[in-house]
Amino acid sequence: MPTLEIALLSGRSCCLTVEPEETIWALRDRAQKELGVGISVWLNSRTGKALKRFSTVAAEGLQDGDLVTASARQAKLTSNHRFSRVLALIRPNGSVVTWGHPQGGGDSELVQRTLALRDVIQIQATASACAALRDDGTVVTWGRKRFGGDSLWVQGQLREIQKIQATSGAFCALRADGSTVAWGSVRHGGDSKVQLANVKDIVATQGAFGALQADGHVITWGRHRAGGNAELCDVELLCAAAFSFAALRSDGLVQLLGAPSAVDLGEVSSLVASAETFAALRKDGSVALVTAQNSETVRLLETKYALREICTSAFAFAGITNESTVVAWGAPEFGGDSSGVEAQLKEVKQICATESGFAALRQDGLVVSWGTKGGDSQEVRHLLKDIQQIESSSGAFAAIRADGLVVTWGQADAGGSPNGRVKEQLRNVHEL
């Protein structure tokens, strides 16, 4: 039988004997136990290609003596800032800590006791439920049943899942074979009868899902007033606002689904959306804005520097420039005015947003915040140092420090103030 060497970037390694039909995720599970760390990404060093989770040793072309290079999985914060009041931490070993509104999925103690929340790689949330994707492609759910917390009726289909997306009341999972599985509130897109094929991406408004198929065909379902029941062809990229979808077509034009015509916004590289406005980041770093109500209402954002990344609150935007400064625009009460902290917004590497506030992580590990709902971080400023990652729910922020402490601030019922039991679990989070 073939023997593979699994080597971490740190230099630690192990040798494992494998069966040709052994799955990659099973091989990774054995390697994690042998090396004592979680593994996030690994490559076949001979071909330079990433190994696919649901493939097999033989299908990936691994041969006796091959070297597989792996990177250790880091602790990661996650949430759905559009409407979720829950924050979650995925530890390096795949175990999970959740906090925030208990009726929104913030209390996962019961499902934790079943040992189901292990080997987790992604968490998604509706307004009142959570879904965790495990490394073996299965899904665990908890929270209010009618908001997607009960996946019993579709559990048989929840296998080889690659990605989960959420509206405010339903989930949709994308399988490795390109098929979809939906559950939760039918009104919000959770109709399990909707089963599509050849899907390569899923996005979601508050009440509808949009699926982009491999041939460029887009299908949406869910609430009509949230963008459901629409179709479009020749699409390269799909984006969701609160109640509508926009598509970048293969001819370079941008079209709102349901609109009679498309608009030319120049050479678009990406689309992002607030509740009512789509922002097209163009290849030259400039930005064109389109309102969701009227695709003919287009305006160009005037900025001193080109932008490389854009983040959104409900009614405002914040972009990182090529000089690593920040440009904010939109409703001031939703974080559209950063003038009060402009001098501090230097060497910024990450921005995230609540419903009405922003937080920026700088290269030196400090955090700058503005707006409301978490925009005031003064009470925890002395703790916000050596920060590695920041994340947000709809009303609160969380940050991981280099020493493994998680710092939170913002609305208490959205994760800004975890209870004592959770606080103890938010220490030394880098350890297995």
UniProtKB/TrEMBL annotation:
<dbReference type="InterPro" id="IPR051553">
    <property type="entry name" value="Ran_GTPase-activating"/>
</dbReference>
<dbReference type="InterPro" id="IPR000626">
    <property type="entry name" value="Ubiquitin-like_dom"/>
</dbReference>
<feature type="domain" description="Ubiquitin-like">
    <location>
        <begin position="2"/>
        <end position="74"/>
    </location>
</feature>
<protein>
    <recommendedName>
        <fullName>Ubiquitin-like domain-containing protein</fullName>
    </recommendedName>
</protein>
<dbReference type="InterPro" id="IPR009091">
    <property type="entry name" value="RCC1/BLIP-II"/>
</dbReference>
